[in-house]
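pinned: reference chain
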Amino acid sequence: MSADTELMVLRLGLIALIFVFIAIVAFTLRGGRVAAAAPVSRPSGQWRLVVVRPGETGFSPGDAFPLAGTMIVGRDGTAGVILPDASVSMRHARVERIDSGWKVTDLSSTNGTFVDGRVAGASGVIVRKPATVAFGNVLVQLTDA
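pinned: its structure tokens
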């Protein structure tokens, strides 16, 4: 094989490798974009997350997500509450029912979780009455009304 032929084969191989890389990146990014579960309104008395400032989620203020037991909040399609906003991490926070109310715990999210302006770190914040919770740019009200 001549030097020119070898060089051409190497160039074509490099171009093929670049295309494979681009395809892998495209499929990975596409996999992170999932359709969000529609919020459901429930009768009062049941705790829920009510959207106050939807960010880029596509939800409207007043949309509500019922809470039960322990739920993950994030962009991941397996989360109990899916918030498809770029400021929300895939697994952003955990909201769990405890004896004295609800506990909101940040799961090492990029943009943080705040309860009534306080940071909800890895140890979490206990909520006993309605509170405002920020998951990145998305603001919700944790309420039983």
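why pinned: The helical segments are 3-32. The two ends are 78 Å apart (CA to CA).
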